[in-house]
Automatic annotation (TrEMBL):
Organism: Candidatus Roizmanbacteria bacterium RIFOXYA1_FULL_41_12
Annotated InterPro entries: Acyl_CoA_acyltransferase, GNAT_dom
Residues covered by the N-acetyltransferase domain: 7-171
Stated name of the protein: N-acetyltransferase domain-containing protein
CDD domains assigned to the protein according to its UniProt record, in alphabetical order: NAT_SF
Amino acid sequence: MPKMTEYNLRSAVLSDAAPLTELVAAAIPGYPFVGVYDSEQVAQSIRNGEYRILAEMPEIGVVATAVLGTESVMSEIKRVVVHPKMRKNGLASQMTIRLAGEAKQLGHIPWADVRADQIGMQRAALAAGLSPVCLEPGKHVVYDHLYLNFGSKRPARETMIHMTSLPVDLDKLASHLKAWPITLRNRLLTELYSSLKPQRYQEMVAEKALPSAIEVNHRISQRINQEVKNLIKEESADFCQIKFQGHQLLIIKPDASGFFTINHDLNFPELIKIAKRVGLQIITCYVDTKQINLLDSLDTAGFIPAMIRPWQEEGSEPVWQVGWQYRLNDYGSCQHQVFLDPNVENMLLNQFSLLQLSVEN
């Protein structure tokens, strides 16, 4: 196993595009955004100022990479990739620690959504000072999962772990939730616990719903063209943003998912109908816990309070948000298994228990 002193961490440059795509192809097959396997697209991202670092070794070349999102004060550490032969060397931790430090130097707040089936990435986020807050069930798709370590590869919806450098003030969260209807409060607590044990995976259902990133992208693109004719939309190869009565639905086509933003007008069923018809499996909507006026509309529409996170916008104080999920089109049968680092699992269970006690007292 190579020594850590043999690695060189540096910023990526244009000439790294080809070796970076080779690394990603070896390390994360089945990623929904196929542009990561295209050296021209990777080069364009670097040219556009993508904040990417890489690790290289003499006589071997690029063996790891990671990206820091710097578009807002909440800077996401993402696309942490280590070559399979170079794992368990601490590389993921070293890159995550570095990017967390650089985010703070920029005056930003580092955070990460790490996969709930990759213990190494969870430990890397812990090493960088990030704390696990909750699981985010079925949030994204990976099309080439190694299932139960038996060598069988299959598509599945991936549960993520939200990890943050913001204070995790459970007392403040509990004080907000006490103002909620008891049924919704209890549903949130139930969902937090149940996310640790996803619904049973059904291979035939998942393979039909999620055959490949390219096919899912094409299928959803076709349905968007059929269904979204008179609404305002902005579309690219992987994304489509639809606007209706001030609401916004961002569709991530190869991921069969969407993110929903609500305005003060609570009439938004039309966008949910569109999401169903185009083939999305999940819509996520983050709402501040103090926005009590939205609870009834979200609940009536079929959204489920499933996730929690502290969040901060530029120039504002941190707030608690609840992630509401609308699940559809065989979502439940497509969920991947969860493998948690024992420390991460204990931290989550302890937080859920403390939150429950605070809310009930």
